[in-house]
C-alpha cells in the first residue's frame, strides 16, 4: 500500500494550528441538522488533535453556492450540532483566510476548535487556486485531511493545502484508506464484488474495472436486467437499458478473458405493477417473465446460490442493492445476501467493505451494517475508487 502520514506521525503540536478538512455537508431541515453521522466521523481526529494541544480550524464545504456567499449555506448553521457532538464550545469564523482568521487563531487556546466559513463561498476553492491556497495556509502550521468523501475533487482544501503544508491523514481518512486497500488494493483472494442499482450507464467504468480485479462479479438490481437482455432473455416491462446490451456483452467478454465469473439471477421476483405486496407477485425462472411483467428482485434460489459464492470468498466489495429494496417484498434478496455476508464477517472468514448511499441504507435496513468490516459513507469518491481512478485528495497525502 502507498504510504501516507497519520496523526501518529505528529511531533509536539502544542499551540500549533491544524487546518483540518472535514465533511460537514450535512442533511438539514428547517435550519436544523437531521443526521450527524458525518460530524461523528470527524470526532476521533478532532479529539486527538485537541488532546495534543493543537488549535483546530475545521474547513468544509456545504452545498453548491458557486463561489457566492449564500446565507442559507453558511456553516454557522452547523455549529450547534458540532458543539453537541463534541461536547464543547466551538468558535465560528466567517472567513477562511486573512486577518479575521489570524485574529481568531490569536483568541483560541490550545485544544480549542473553530469552524471556518463554507469554503465554496470562494471561487478559488473549486479552481484549486494557488493564491487562495497560500492565503489559507498562511494561518496554519500543518494540514489534516479527514474527508474521504471529498477526496475525488482536486480543490484548494482537498488537494492544494496538502501540498502547501505538512500533510496528514485524519483517523476517518486513515480507516477508509486501510479498508479500501484490504478490499481491492491488496485483498486476500478470492474476491467477490456485488454491484447493484438501477442503471448500467452509471456504473460502466466500475464494471469494466472490477472484471479485471475480482474473481466473482455479482450483478443485481435494474442493471442485471440489461445483462439478461444482452444474453437474449426477454425481460418484459422491466427497467432495462436495451441500448447498452452491446456494452454489457463486451463486459461479459472482458470478464471471461480475465477469469472473472459473472453471476446473474436465474430465478426472479416479478410483478405487473411496482407496488408493495402486489396481487400479481410471483417468483419464476428468468426465461418465464411475461411481456407485461417486470423483474423487481432476484429470487430466493439465486440469493441462496450467491450466498454460497460468498462462502468460497475471502473478500467482498459491495455497492448497490439487488432489487427494489425500498419496498417489501422486493428487499428479500438484498437482505438475505447481506445477512450471509455479515455472518461470514463475524465468523472471520470474510473481509466485507461496502459503500454508497443506497448500499448503506440497504445494509441498515437488513440490520447488518454494524457487522460489516467497513462501511464507507462516501458516494462519488467510493465509486471513483471502485473505477480504479486516482483520487486527488488521497494522492496529495502520499509520501
UniProtKB/TrEMBL annotation:
Pathway membership: Carbohydrate degradation; glycolysis; pyruvate from D-glyceraldehyde 3-phosphate: step 2/5
Q: What keywords are annotated for this sequence in UniProt?
A: ATP-binding, Cytoplasm, Glycolysis, Kinase, Nucleotide-binding, Transferase
The entry lists its GO molecular-function terms as: ADP binding; ATP binding; phosphoglycerate kinase activity
Q: Which InterPro entries match?
A: Phosphoglycerate_kinase, Phosphoglycerate_kinase_N, Phosphoglycerate_kinase_sf
| Residues noted as binding ATP in the record, renumbered to the chain | 203, 326, 356-359
Provide the binding site for substrate.
Answer: 23-25, 38, 61-64, 120, 153
Q: Name the source's superkingdom.
A: Bacteria
Which compartments is it annotated to reside in?
Cytoplasm
Report if keyword Transcription regulation is assigned: no
Which Pfam families does this entry report, sorted A to Z? PGK (PF00162)
What Enzyme Commission number(s) appear in the record? Answer: 2.7.2.3
Q: Name one GO cellular component term.
A: cytosol
Q: Does the keyword ATP-binding apply?
A: yes
What GO biological process terms does the UniProt entry carry, in alphabetical order?
A: gluconeogenesis; glycolytic process
Binding positions for (2R)-3-phosphoglycerate per the UniProt entry: 38, 120, 153
Q: What chemistry does it catalyse, as a reaction equation? A: (2R)-3-phosphoglycerate + ATP = (2R)-3-phospho-glyceroyl phosphate + ADP
HAMAP family from the UniProt entry: Phosphoglyc_kinase
Which family, according to the similarity comment?
A: Belongs to the phosphoglycerate kinase family.
Assembly and binders: Monomer.
State what protein this is by name. Answer: Phosphoglycerate kinase
Amino acid at each position: 500500500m502507498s504510504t501516507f502520514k497519520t496523526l501518529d506521525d505528529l511531533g509536539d503540536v502544542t499551540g500549533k494550528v491544524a487546518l483540518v478538512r472535514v465533511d460537514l455537508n450535512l442533511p438539514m431541515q428547517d435550519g436544523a441538522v437531521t443526521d450527524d453521522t458525518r460530524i461523528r466521523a470527524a470526532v476521533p481526529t478532532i479529539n486527538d488533535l485537541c488532546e495534543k494541544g493543537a488549535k483546530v480550524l475545521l474547513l468544509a464545504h456545504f452545498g453548491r453556492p458557486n463561489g457566492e456567499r449564500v446565507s442559507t449555506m453558511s456553516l454557522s448553521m452547523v455549529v450547534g450540532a458540532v458543539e453537541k457532538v463534541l461536547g464543547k464550545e466551538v468558535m465560528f469564523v466567517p472567513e477562511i483566510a486573512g486577518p479575521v482568521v489570524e485574529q481568531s487563531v490569536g483568541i483560541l487556546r490550545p485544544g480549542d476548535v473553530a469552524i471556518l466559513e463554507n469554503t465554496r463561498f470562494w471561487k478559488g476553492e473549486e479552481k484549486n487556486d494557488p493564491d487562495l491556497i497560500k492565503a489559507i495556509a498562511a494561518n496554519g502550521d500543518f494540514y489534516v485531511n479527514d474527508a474521504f468523501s471529498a477526496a475525488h475533487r482536486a480543490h484548494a482544501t482537498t488537494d492544494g493545502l496538502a501540498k502547501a503544508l505538512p500533510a496528514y491523514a485524519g483517523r476517518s481518512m486513515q480507516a477508509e484508506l486501510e479498508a479500501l486497500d484490504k478490499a481491492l488494493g491488496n485483498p486476500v483472494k478470492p474476491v467477490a464484488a456485488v454491484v447493484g442499482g438501477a442503471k448500467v450507464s452509471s456504473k460502466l467504468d466500475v464494471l469494466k474495472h472490477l472484471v479485471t480485479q475480482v474473481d466473482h462479479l455479482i450483478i443485481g438490481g435494474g442493471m442485471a436486467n440489461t445483462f439478461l437482455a444482452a444474453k437474449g432473455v426477454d425481460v418484459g416491462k422491466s427497467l432495462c437499458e436495451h441500448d447498452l446490451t452491446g456494452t454489457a456483452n463486451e463486459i461479459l467478454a472482458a470478464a471471461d478473458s480475465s477469469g472473472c465469473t459473472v453471476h446473474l439471477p436465474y430465478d426472479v421476483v416479478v410483478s405487473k405493477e411496482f407496488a408493495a405486496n402486489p396481487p400479481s407477485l410471483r417468483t419464476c425462472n428468468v426465461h418465464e417473465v411475461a411481456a407485461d411483467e417486470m423483474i423487481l428482485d432476484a429470487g430466493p434460489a439465486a440469493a441462496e446460490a450467491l450466498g454460497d459464492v460468498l462462502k468460497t470468498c475471502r473478500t467482498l466489495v459491495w455497492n448497490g442493492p439487488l432489487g427494489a429494496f425500498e419496498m417489501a417484498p422486493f428487499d428479500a434478496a438484498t437482505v438475505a445476501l447481506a445477512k450471509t455476508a455479515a455472518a461470514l464477517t463475524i465468523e472471520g472468514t470474510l473481509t466485507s467493505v461496502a459503500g454508497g448511499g443506497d448500499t448503506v441504507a440497504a445494509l441498515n435496513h437488513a440490520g447488518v451494517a454494524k457487522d460489516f468490516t467497513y462501511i464507507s459513507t462516501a458516494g462519488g469518491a467510493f465509486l471513483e475508487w471502485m473505477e480504479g481512478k486516482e483520487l486527488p485528495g488521497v494522492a496529495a497525502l502520499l509520501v
